[in-house]
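Progress against Task 2.4 (sequence-to-structure conversion) is shown through the following example record, which the project officer requested during the mid-term review.
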Amino acid sequence: MNRKKLVIMQSLSIFGYLIFTSFATVKVQGTALMTENFYFYIIFSQFVYVPVGILLALPELLRQWEEEGQWKWKKRYGLFFLFPTLYMMLVPYVIPVDSLFPNLLITNPSVSSVIQVLCGYFLIKGFEKE
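Structure tokens generated for the chain above:
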């Protein structure tokens, strides 16, 4: 596929997903307020931006898809990138234990979004053909 077309499709998909996410977040937040059941909203808000990272890493995966060889998971990506991002997404919201990181870092909504994008990116980037 033409690289320029791929970049345009990737950009449109990311912006479309972000628009969809903004509407879905308002809907899920409203439902959580009405039912006073916030668990789904917490889970949703901790994983909503992971597909953006997946979309960012997708061109590299598609380039490798055409190559010959077997898929291999890079353990260093899992150990040094994916595991810490999952830890920051899950603790203390989903897994109720004290965090190793400062509360300011964990509760900042901007950091949470960036961590989710990184998690999706390194989830896909960890696969390679040998």
